[in-house]
Amino acid sequence: QLRNDVMHEPEGGAIKQILLDEVECIAAKLLDVAATKFSVGSDELRKALDELKKICSNIRAAVLTGKEHKAVQCQVMMVEEGIPQLRVKIDSYKSSSTWLQNVTGFYCLQLSDSYNNTVSCKDILEFCSKNSDTRILFVNGSSGSGKSTLLRQIQTDLIRKDGETRTFKGGESFEVPLHFACRTLYVKTLVQLVSETFPHVAEKFEEENLIEFAIGHMKCVFLVDGLDELNENSKALVEEIVTFLKLNTSAICIFTSRPHSIQFFQNQLDEEGLLYQTFKIDKVKSQKEQENFLMSSCANGQEISNTYTSCKMNLKSPVHLGLYSYFHSLDPESVKLWTSPAHIMRGTIDYGLKIAVNRLNQRCVQESQYISEVILERICLISFYCLLENKFLLGKTEIDWLLAQTREEC
What we know:
The protein is of the alpha/beta class. It has 18 helices and 7 strands.
């Protein structure tokens, strides 16, 4: 069939480019059915599937132009070298928050759409796969609702080795995850992002070829964390990603944001004619869900969950539950007296103050306790004024003022 479609194409007609993909898909299904019918082991099946991919790859290579050869080389290197190196990089990543270090597992939260339909976050990639018209998702939620953790977990899941258990359904459909946090981004172009994510691949190809030959021909997932915290670099990159999504229909993007910023970006997509879907991260509402969160996500989860149940706490935010877990690991007896989220936040502030004092002492700063308390008072003051004016972020002006005041005190 492949030979006939190529050789007997009407003069001037276009050869059916996707035919080999279709044949490969059918052959893979036949192998899968045969393995079940004749009780073939998974290792032998995987070996046969690898052989199938090799045969199809050789067919493609036989008819490629020089430019197409370069594209294939770049894609192969991305999969065979870039992705394994990204695995190492992610494995070495550790949360910058000391207080959440006791959260060692991932808990699948529920998402709800604008019609209050509920879906598990583990179905988010499958949603994109089945809804080709909606390739852009917005996930919004308040601070500490689990947005950043969700994107990190998706990135980790997408680069798992073949045969490893995946958390997110449909993840095997995508090849390259490109993740960045808007608040801390220091690159401003798509080329720079790909180069920073896959530095060893970037060394071997011209920068512009990374886009044309690699991610332009692969199924990419952009994971953009914190639209409400854009800086100049991330704003420029987001605009470039939107353009890329218009030109490359196999790519998808998941944005996270706090609710107050999301409408502005959706208005921009409306102007561009791009469809999107919005989900909200639901709180951990019931007592049973909260106990399950602690048991499945935290080190020594059973003991923490038992203490939590006896205190009759009602912490609906994942970050509050994570903080509770951390303080329980420090002093199980003290948390037994806590009854509300206010106790969690008070404990966090007191602990942060203690850490600040210790750091100043290590630098031989005089009056470290007094200085730390003054700094905390000023943070409270400027935070109060921001809230009074309905401002949800400390901007450059406020942060510069805090830094200047801190230097003066020190």
